Amino acid sequence: MCFFMFYNNVDDARQVGGFWLVVAGLSFVLLVIPGVWAIVRQRRVSRPTIVTADEDGLRWTRFGLPKSGVLLRWSDIRSFATLRTGMARISKQKFDFTQHIFVVDGGDFTLAWYVKYGSPDAELQASDSLTHLIFVRTGLPLRELAQT
């Protein structure tokens, strides 16, 4: 069996070469470009979101992009809830939740964050401060949602 192709003239070889060039180009477009796009998008999404609070409400940027600022006004916040998820053994006889998820519903925008068991004290303090500030500014209680 022969793996080489012999062509009778140069034009046939050029046509076949052009075909493989088109196949390589389509492969690049269909495989490489979406892969690069997925990596870039993941890097944007995985950036930490910085939330700031002022007299108007809560501000943050979506996907870490500076021009995509969001303002969630204090008056627009409809509900504030937390959900504890996961279980872990803390000691021989004590179990505790491994993660607390907080959700601020503002109708058009929703802010959510989580704190894991064993998070650094700075993260726990920031979450507690934001939770307290939302309660003070809106008067909404932090509702505990139960897992079913």
Overview of the molecule:
The structure is a single chain. The protein has 148 residues and is of the alpha+beta class. The protein has 2 domains: 9-46; 52-145, Roll (PH-domain like), CATH 2.30.29. Helices cover 36% and strands 30% of the residues. The strands form 2 sheets. A 4-stranded mixed beta sheet has the order 6-5-4-7, covered by helices on one side. It has a 3-stranded antiparallel beta sheet with strand order 1-2-3, with no helix packed on it.
Order of helices and strands: HEEEEEEHE
Structural class comes to: alpha+beta
Q: Helix amount, in percent?
A: 25-40%
Low-confidence stretches: none
Cα radius of gyration in angstroms: 27 Å
**Major sheet description:** 4 strands, mixed
Strand content: 25-35%
Q: Characterize the overall form.
A: extended
The rounded distance between the terminal residues' Cα atoms is: 65 Å
Total separate domains: 2
The chain-level mean pLDDT equals: 77
Remind me, CATH topology of the largest domain? Answer: PH-domain like
With strands numbered from the N-terminus, the spatial order across the biggest sheet is 6-5-4-7
Give the second-level CATH assignment, the architecture of the largest domain: Roll
Separate helix tally: 2
- Count of strand segments: 7
CATH class bucket of the largest domain = Mainly Beta
